Amino acid sequence: MSSPIPRLVLGRLGIAAITLLIVSVVVFGATQMLPGDVAEILLGQSATPEAVAGLRKAMNLDQPAIMQYGSWLWGLLRGDLGTSYANSMPVADLIGGRLVNTLRLGAVTAAIAVPLALSLGIATAMYRGTAFDRAVNACIIAVISVPEFMIATLAVLVFAVWLKWLPALSVNSDIDSITQMLRVFAMPVITLLCVICAQMIRMTRAAMISVLDSPYVEMALLKGASRSRMVLRHALPNAVGPIVNAVALSLSYLVGGVIIVETVFNYPGIARLMVDSVATRDLPLIQGCAMIFCIGYLILITVADLIAILSNPRLR
Amino acid sequence: MAVSFPTPRRLGYRLNWTGALAALVVLFWALTAIIGPWFMPHDPGEIVDFDFFGPITDQLWLGSDYLGRDMFSRILMGARYTVGISLAAVVLACASGVILGMTAAVSGGWFDTVLSRLFDALNSIPSKLFGLVMVAAVGSSIPVLILVLAVIYLPGAFRFARALAVNINTMDYVTVARARGERTPYLIMNEILPNMTGPVLADVGLRFVFIVLLLSGLSFLGLGVQPPYADWGSLVRENIGGLPFAAPAVIMPSLAIATLTISVNLLIDNLPTKIRDRSE
Questions:
Q1: Backbone φ and ψ of B277, nearest 5°
Q2: Which of B53, B122, B129, B215 best probes binding to A when mutated, by most A CB atoms within 10 angstroms?
Q3: Where are the domains of chain A?
Q4: Of the partner residues A18, A30, A161, the one whose CB lies closest to the CB of residue B121
Q5: Are A12 and A302 in contact (CB under 8 A)?
Q6: Which of B126, B258, B269 has its CB closest to that of A146?
Q7: How far apart, in Å, are the Cα atoms of A169 and each of A108, A166, A187, B216, B219?
Q8: How far A58 CA sits from the closest chain B CA (Å)?
Q9: What pLDDT, on the 0 to 100 scale, is given for residue B85?
Q10: Contact A117/A196 with Cβ under 8 angstroms?
Q11: Contact B126 A294 (CB under 8 A)
Q12: Which residues are paired to B70 by β-bridges?
C-alpha cells in the first residue's frame, strides 16, 4: 500500500498556489475599483489631454484590465513589483530594506514567544482547573478581546509614561550597542508578544488537553506514572504535531499585529510603508506590500497544514 | 444528538453571575448606542474647554479631547458608530454566510465545492490587510466599511454554518422531509435552521467582537470612520497625543472598546450549554 502523504502534500501545495492566484486577483481587482483615472490623478488638474493620453500609453493603462493584470502578474513572478507613483522608485527597492526590519521584528518576537507560550500552554494543560490555569486563562481572554493598539498604548503608558524605562518611539537607524537595541525593540516586541502568546497558549493548551484526555494517557496514570512522566513521556510526543500546527497558526497573527505595532511605535517596517502608501494612494506600492503580506501569511498557514498532515501517524 | 429549539416553555435558562454581569454591560452599550446621544451634555463637535486634554471635572465628566471638546458626549456618540456599524456588518455577514452555508450543505455538488474553495481562498487573506487594501481602493465611507467588514467575515460564517448544516443534513428527519419531496428552501428554513439557531447566535456574538476589533483597528489607522464623525477607534487615534500625559481622552474610549468586547466574549463563554453547544 502506497503512502497517501505525497499526494496530500502536493494537493495542499496546489491549493496554496490557487489561493495565491485568487489573492492576486483580489488585490489587483481592488485597485481597479479606484474611482477616476490614475494618469489624471498623477498629472494633476492642469494636465493636457495629450499628456494624459501619453502617460496612459506609457503605463499600459489603455489596455484591457485582464492584460494589465497579466503583465502585473508576470512582473510579480520575475520579482518586478513595478514603480512607485509617489517617488518613481522601483517598489522592490522601497520594500527591500523595510522588509528586513519587519522580519527582524517578527523573528525576535517569535524567538521569545515560542518557548514562553509552549511552556505556559503545557503547564496550564497539566494543571487544568487550578488557580494558576484560571488566572492565565483570564489574562488570555482579556488580551484577545481588546484591539492590538490598546495593548500598545497600555505598554506605552506603563513603560514609557509611568515607569519611564523606555522611549515611546522606536527608530531603527542608529543601533550601536546591545542596550540601544533593547530599547528600540522592547516596546514593539512586548506588544506583539502579548498578542501572539495569547493565541499560542490557548491553542497549545487545547492541543495538549485533547491528548491528555485520551484513554492511553489515563492508562499511564493508572499504571502509576507520575504526572510529569505522564505528560512528558506519554502525552507530549503525540501532541507535538498539533502543537507545532498551533505555533505556525499563531505566528500568522503576527501579520495583523505588525501593521498596528509598526504604526504606533513608528517602526520603519513594511507595514508602516504600506499604511503610508495608503494615505498617498500609491497603488503599486500597496499591491506589492499586500502581496508580500499575503505570501507570508499563506506560507505560515500552509506550513501549519503540512505539519498536521505529516505528523498524523495514521497517514504514514 | 439533535439540539432542540428553545420553545418559550423551556426558556428557563440560568446565567451564572459572570454571564449576567457581561449581559448587563452589553445591554448598557446597546442602549447607549440607541438613546445615548439624547443625553449628551454638550454637542460632540462643540469646543467647551479652553484647555486641551483636560482632566475629569464636574462639568466634563470624562475630560476634554485634543481640541477641548467634551469627551463624554463624544464617547456617547461614538457608541452609535462602533456598535451600529459592527452590528450592521455582522448581521450582513452572518445572514448571507448562514444562508449560503446551509444551501451548500443541502445541495452539495459543484455549488458546494466552488463556494467552499472560494471562501477558503478569501479566508487566507489577513483580515486587517484586506480591509486596508479595500479602503485604500474605494475610499472610506460608512456603507463601504459595513460592506468590507461583512465580506471579510462572511467566509468564517459560511464555514461554521456549513459544518453545522452538514451534520444536521444526515439526520433522519431531513431524509424524511426530502423523501416527502420538499424543496431546498423548505429544507433550509424549516428543518436545518431551527436546529442550529443556538450555535449560530453564539457565532454571531463572537464574530461581532472580531468586527468591533477590526473596525477599531482600521479607525485607529485613520482608515475607518472619518472626521467629523468618530467611532471609538477614531477617538483613540485623535487623542493619541494625550498618551504621554495619560489623558482620560485616550484612556476612556479604549476602556469603552475593552468593556464591550470583553463582555460579549464573557457572555458567549457563559451562555448555558443548551444554547451554545454545537449539534455534534
A1: -65, 145
A2: B129
A3: 5-35+81-315
A4: A18
A5: yes
A6: B258
A7: 18, 9, 8, 22, 21
A8: 22
A9: 93
A10: yes
A11: yes
A12: B64
Chain A residues whose CB is inside 8 A of the B265 CB are 141, 144-145
- CA nearest to B244 within chain A: A161
Domain annotation for chain B: domains and CATH numbers: 2-276 (1.10.3720.10)
Residue A144's alpha-carbon distances to A195, B152, B265, B266, in angstroms, are 7, 19, 10, 12
Only one residue has cell 467611532, namely B231
B26 membership: H or E segment, kind and range: helix B17-35
Cα of B45 vs its chain's centroid, Å: 27
Q: Note the pLDDT of residue B277.
A: 57
The third-level CATH classification (topology) of the domain covering A5-35+81-315 is MetI-like fold (1.10.3720)
CB contact under 8 A, B136 and A157: no
* B101 min Cα distance to partner chain A (Å): 20
Choose the weakest-confidence range: A110-114, A211-215, B8-12, B121-125. B8-12
Beta-carbon pairs below 8 A across chains A and B: 134
Give the pLDDT of residue A38: 65
Q: Model pTM?
A: 0.84
Residues of chain A with pLDDT under 70: 1-2, 33-46, 59-62, 167-181, 315-316
